[in-house]
Amino acid sequence: MPRSTYTERQILRLQSLLYHQKKTKVYATVFAAAGELNGNGNNDLQGQTFLDNLIVSIRAGSGGDGCAAFHREKFVPFGPPSGGNGGRGGDVYILPTPHLTTLSSISKKIHGNSGGNGKGTWQNGKNGEPLVIRVPLGTIVREIPRGDSRRSKDEWEAEEESLEGMNSDDRLKKMRDNRWVHYPQFGESNITRDSFKDAEKALYRQERERRLARRQRELEAPIYLDFDKDMEWSRPVDAPLGARHRETLGHLVASGGTGGLGNPHFLSQLNRAPKFATRGQPGERITLALELKILSDVGFVGMPNAGKSTLLRALTGGRAKSEVASYAFTTLNPVVGIVRVAADGTFEGGVKEGQVAGSMLVRSRGTKPLSGMRPCASTLTAGGYHFDLAETFRFTIADNPGLISDSSENVGLGHSFLRSMERSLALAYIVDLSSPAPWDELLVLREELEKYQPGMSRKARIVIANKADLLGGDGDDAAVAEAKAKLRRLEEFVAEKLVTGEGRLLDVVPVSAKFSQNLTRVVGLMKTYVQEARDRLLVQRPKELDVLQPRPLLDAPW
Ligand SMILES: Nc1nc2c(ncn2[C@@H]2O[C@H](COP(=O)(O)OP(=O)(O)OP(=O)(O)O)[C@@H](O)[C@H]2O)c(=O)[nH]1
Ligand SMILES: [Mg+2]
């Protein structure tokens, strides 16, 4: 559909929708869709839209500072050192959750909770609470390696940056300030004492070891998590009776800094009254790339209004809540639904012949479905059993927003959802058979897929000719013949112009999503595509299916 064909009403609807979202940037997208801007629709909808790529800088909580204090009591003039240790900084975890579908709720900078400072009378600081970053299931988490410009500085590099341009005395002073707490007015004298110098040396040595260990860890086991499944968790078997049931925090990605040591720690034969304590260590800083792969088995590819969402609803028995309306761009983000298939080929939500209001409507309006269409049989509660017992196979379908000419160049709703299509095992074209030239739609769709990623259109296996109920007029022979001729023309066009990756012809199936006509056939075909694609995946990349296996960084696993 060329851009100029959007009606004023459709554009108004988009504009009012976006006005309510108060996202000015989005207007660029709207006007691009309306043909008023060219090409550069900005699709950063700031939390409103589907976000599938994000770089997050994470800083775990810093440890609390140790305290330099002495016990004071009546008649005890020189009490022992009594400064408490600082609390540990809060760790940062990452946890997959099925309740999220986009990365847009995750902030780009995440700071863990700091530990509390130690206090006098041996009071240790409180540990920082752990922080859990929730990401949608299907997220891949990768650590950005050193040398990559997107990576933010680690704790040592950040310190070095803050010291830039200082002379060596100032540097030393600042570094000491970052590491030590002195008893009031003893700062100057402390640094001249041997016990302090020894402690300082030991501290730097530990720091070097930590830094080395970190580098080694980054090289040998960079963080790579592939959240395909919800995390399983169970209570330890030895948990005491009545212990609280704690949910899993997920995967530790950045450890909080250790708390500083109070001055009692530095008590020795030579120094009976240590007047210094250490500060808490900064929390680990890492940069992660989050990538959301909507890994659906079948991805819908179609122009706006072709009936993709209606079809998804029909195939999932209405469980997939994809919005349906008669204007373009109803679906703004990909929606994934599950199709459950029984051994006899029926699927959950399929409707029994004569039961659905739609098929009666078809008749009452006098329009007849094309010959070759069969109503689906319902197995939802057929014979008194629930579908759970009947299900033998299931697959997922992603209903994507409408693709228009130049979507691959970020026009319209852009190409963020083209990534979802890219990650589907098989693609299904949905065209509106009642439109004057459905074959033209197919060409645009194929071209957009190819422009986005050459070779991608070869994943398409089926052309679903929707809205077939609108053809055939009042059931008179001439109208039915005309409808059949149109379908034949579409089939010929597909046979001539489109092939799958294996050089096979695409299936062409007329359906009516609205009235659930001929959907069992569609489900049967999709099941075969999915089985084939899954088998291929198992043969080619058995490791790809491993969950949570740390693997070396790859540029793109797809
Ligand atoms: N008569 C008839 N109308 C249909 C059929 N399928 C969908 N429609 C209608 O077509 C319109 C668009 O349907 P949607 O499912 O929202 O279309 P879509 O492809 O998801 O559209 P976008 O989300 O905007 O890309 C709605 O008014 C549906 O009721 C069908 O099989 N027959
Ligand atoms: Mg839709």
From TrEMBL:
The cellular component terms of Gene Ontology attached to this UniProt record, alphabetical and capped at eight, are: mitochondrion
Name-wise, this protein is: Putative GTP-binding protein P8A3.11c, mitochondrial
- Which biological process annotations from GO are given for this protein? ribosome biogenesis
**Cross-referenced PROSITE patterns, in alphabetical order?**
G_OBG, OBG
- Which GO terms fall under molecular function for this chain's record? GTP binding; GTPase activity
Q: Describe the location of the Obg domain by residue ranges.
A: 48-295
Could you tell me which PANTHER family the record lists for this protein?
DEVELOPMENTALLY REGULATED GTP-BINDING PROTEIN-RELATED (PTHR11702), MITOCHONDRIAL RIBOSOME-ASSOCIATED GTPASE 2 (PTHR11702:SF31)
**Region Disordered: start-end pairs:** 145-167
Q: Which Pfam families match?
A: GTP1_OBG (PF01018), MMR_HSR1 (PF01926)
State where composition is biased (Basic and acidic residues): 145-155
